[in-house]
Write a structure and sequence with these properties.
Elements: H1 3-6, H2 11-26, H3 30-43, H4 49-61, H5 64-75, H6 80-89
């Protein structure tokens, strides 16, 4: 009875689905953070409001491929942040499970 369920997707597709759920469960701070930012943008009059608006709207303007490429360049072992993390802290971020969860903007 259960076997038909596993035949719906390939092993790689099940892995991708599991990784998506794992990523979502590792970031429970996202909905409250999004509500707080939205409230601040709707009601706040702070000096740095334009910067928050730029950061929130940037993914809408730039294609996801460009943002992903810039993140890969920045966090790769040859990039500025990736070099520091690898050589000073011994941490490799690119193409790891927690690399998908760790950056606060992901």
């Amino acid at each position: 009875m259960v076997g038909w369920f596993y035949d719906l997707l390939t092993v790689q597709e099940w892995h991708a689905l599991r990784l998506s759920f794992r990523w979502r469960s590792a970031r429970p701070d996202r909905p409250p953070l999004a509500v707080a930012i939205g409230y601040h943008l709707a009601r706040g009059q702070a000096k740095g409001r334009w910067l928050i608006e730029v950061l929130v709207n940037l993914p809408l303007v730039l294609p996801p491929v460009v943002v992903g490429y810039l993140l890969l360049v920045c966090f790769s072992p040859r990039g500025a942040v990736g070099w520091f993390l690898l050589n000073w802290l011994g941490v490799r971020v690119v193409f790891t499970w927690w690399g998908a969860v760790w950056p606060p903007w992901s």
